[in-house]
Amino acid sequence: MSNNIASKAVSGLKWGSTATVANAIMQIGYTSAMARLLSPEAFGLVAIASVILRFGSYFANMGLTKALIQKENLEPQHIRAAFTASLVLGLLFAGITWLLAPFAAAFFKNPDVTPIVQVMALSFIINGAAVTSVSMLERDMRFKAISILEVVSYVVAYLGAGILLAYLGYGVWSLIYATLLQAAIMALGAYVVVRHNVMLQLRLAPYKPLFSYGSRMSFISFLEFLSQEFGTILIGRVLGSYKLGLYNRAYMLINLPMYMLTRTFTKVIFPSFSKIQNDIQKLGSIYLSSITLLAAIVIPLCLGIAVAAPEIVRILLGEQWGESVPVLQVLCMALALSFITMFAGIVCDAKAILNVKIVLNVVFILVISGLFFLLREYGLVGFALAVLIGEVVRMAMYQRVMHNVLQLPYRQQLSIYLPGVINGVLVALGIYLVSSLLRSADAPVVLTFAAQIITGAVLLLLLTLLFPHKLLRTELQMLFNKMGFNGEGTSTSSRFIYKYILKEA
User: Which residues of 347-362 are buried (b: 16+ CB within 10 A; e: fewer)?
Assistant: First the structure.
């Protein structure tokens, strides 16, 4: 990776991490407030509507987002073609969704879904107009602008309009209007920053290279969507919107922090991988480094959340959401594996190895479908167990792909999980001991939760900074060196990092 790309990547991580922390804090407040203002059924209705819309979203975009980022030589005619196609497809799918909404609602046996889907169909038009601007920002690795836009749009739409509308009694519509407003603010802001040509492209030639890659990416994204949302589809149809609301909130409690944590990496990694897609050795090295660092954070965080699940649900959602606790505990490790494995998928995207990825996702869908059938008698927990087992299978399949594509030995691929697993077990054990002590003493739930957070944070920092596994130490050395922590600075943080991480013990 050239110095310029590395510098942009590090800058992207810094800005993305700042936005991630801000968004994570806001997500916690928003989730807590809305869970108290709205019923589980409201979240279930939105979950059903979101699944229906996502069916069309992958084909409405046709993979143009990643096509713009992945293409090595991008010309103005390609930008115009992407904008034209995205806008036309957005209008088309908005109309189709409006017409088919009653039939989709009939599938889920809930007529209340129809008007929600029809209004949310406007998101196709908004996203169609915005996708080119956002893609250009990501391609140019302008993550500072993206981070600012995301924070501002979230504050205005969700913390402002969403909570206010819920308080005024708009019910499920407060969730809908907040979502549309956030998308509109993001779209307008991205265009103001980029200001690309919005003249329609009438020549067909510029569309060919974009759709050649983008159409396959769109199909792959659709398959990944099916694998991720299969539980939502089945629960919504078989168990109804109430049970789906319980599952959805448990899923979101772990998915949101994981998404916020990994989205910074993925936004930076995909354009970075794309720029070095032909250098297998360098790509393999960065791939291993990325997973080592991410696993060292994600696995301890997920195991800690699993132990603290009873307090998390009671504080963030309320007493009426108690049934979500065991579901959340099972989903914790499933989503940890999902977000870590995602990096193998990004390698395939960057190198345009898409046919293999299609086959892999089809196999995964078949596997998880069978698991859902076998474990259906265990209810919501059974669905969560099916997701966990399915993610283990997917990880094994992706390791086979990386073995062939990047020539990485299986033992080396498995070893990079070791620092995260060791730290995760120790963090979870510490939180469990503190939790057991306070629960047996009937301590207030807020006090127990605070003790869990402090215990987990302190243990993770100690294990990461003072006693890092040798694999993790090596990766931290490279990362902090690029960030300028070389022992020459005068700040306390620079000296501390150099003493305990960069300087060999």
Answer: bbbbbbebeebeebbe
Token pair recorded at residue 254: 């772990």
| Residues near 20 by beta carbon (within 8 Å), at least 6 away in sequence | 260, 261, 263, 264
Q: Which two tokens stand for residue 76?
A: 């103005």
| pTM (whole model) above 0.85 | no
Instruction: Give phi and psi for 421, each to the nearest 5.
Output: -65, -45
Interatomic CA distance for residues 177 and 162, integer angstroms: 7
| pLDDT single digits (tens) 185-229 | 998 998 888 887 777 776 777 666 666 666 666 677 777 777 777
Q: Decide: 75 and 242 in contact? Cβ < 8 Å.
A: no
Q: Where are the domains of the chain?
A: 3-457, 468-505
Distance CA 386, CA 375 (A): 7
pLDDT in tens, 409-420: 888 888 888 888
DSSP symbols for 339-373: HHHHHHHHHHHHTT-HHHHHHHHHHHHHHHHHHHH
The crossing angle, in degrees rounded to 10, of helices 241-275 and 309-316 is 110
* CA dihedral for 228, 231, 236, 242, sign (positive or negative): negative
Residues 6+ apart with CB under 8 A from 338: 228, 258, 391, 394
